[in-house]
Write a structure and sequence with these properties.
The protein is of the alpha/beta class. Helices cover 21% and strands 38% of the residues. A hairpin with a 2-residue loop joins strand 2 and strand 3.
Length: 134
């Protein structure tokens, strides 16, 4: 069997705030939650795909934001350019928009970059050659 990509794990200084961000912007739902040795871990997934791929938030109240942020990011496909614009405006109103919407051609598509509460970058795109949104 070939390896299967199942999750991305990121640190969250405020796990409730981070879970709310991903619920609001990416419409993820909580799949699993546990606390072991004082560390809370939350799994978030897309409705209907919760057993395929999740973001794992690991509570780390001591984690520092790195400025400027690295180019590493989480990428989400959305259904239209208008949805990219809507999310970008929402992020702008919350002062978390990093890169406004732009069209980078047929491979990268139309996208914007938003910063989550812990400084991680999240890309919302339409028209990437990676495929259609779920």
């Amino acid at each position: 069997m070939d390896p299967t990509f199942t999750h991305v794990a990121i640190l969250a200084r405020d796990i409730e705030r981070a879970a709310a961000f991903y619920g609001r912007y990416a419409r993820l739902v909580e799949v699993h939650r546990r606390t072991e040795h004082g560390v809370t871990v939350v799994w978030l997934g897309e409705r209907g795909r919760e057993r395929e791929l999740v973001i794992v938030l690991i509570g780390a109240p001591h984690a520092d934001v790195v400025e400027p942020a690295p180019l590493a990011h989480l990428g989400y496909a959305v259904e239209s350019r208008e949805e990219v614009d809507r999310l970008a405006e929402w992020a702008r109103s919350e002062s978390i928009l990093v890169d406004p919407p732009r069209d980078a051609g047929p491979i990268v598509g139309y996208y914007c970059i938003v910063r989550d509460p812990d400084g991680n970058l999240v890309e919302f795109s339409f028209g990437q050659s990676l495929g259609e949104p779920a």
